[in-house]
């Protein structure tokens, strides 16, 4: 399972979504965004699905999911 990080951007009043496992395949630090947390989560899932589909279609290996230890 891949992780998704969502952070509130105070300046723009949007939620920014990053996909740490896929960062080397993205252009910028944020993969997508949304006006609400729910919209950002949905948009993040759409981008993640597209990244996986593109990698499979191109015969590229999927990145190993990062494991974050519990504190």
Coarse shape: globular
> What structural class should be given to the helix and strand makeup?
alpha+beta
Strand content: 15-25%
The radius of gyration over CA amounts to 13 Å
Average pLDDT reading: 92
Through-space gap between termini? 20 Å
Number of helices: 1
Number of domains: 1
Largest sheet: 3 strands, antiparallel
Q: What strand line-up does the widest sheet have?
A: 1-2-3
Structural description of this entry:
The protein is of the alpha+beta class and 71 residues long. The chain has one domain (5-57). Helix content is 30%, strand content 18%. It has one helix and three strands. The chain has a three-stranded antiparallel β-sheet with strand order 1-2-3, covered by helices on one side. A hairpin with a 4-residue loop joins strand 1 and strand 2. The longest helix is centred in the middle third of the chain and has 21 residues, at 37-57.
């Amino acid at each position: 399972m891949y992780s998704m990080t969502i952070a509130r951007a105070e300046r723009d009043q949007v939620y920014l979504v990053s996909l740490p496992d896929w960062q080397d395949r993205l252009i910028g630090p944020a993969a997508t965004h949304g006006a609400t947390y729910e919209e950002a989560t949905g948009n993040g899932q759409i981008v993640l699905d597209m990244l996986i589909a593109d990698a499979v279609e191109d015969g590229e290996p999927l990145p190993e999911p990062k494991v974050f230890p519990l504190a």
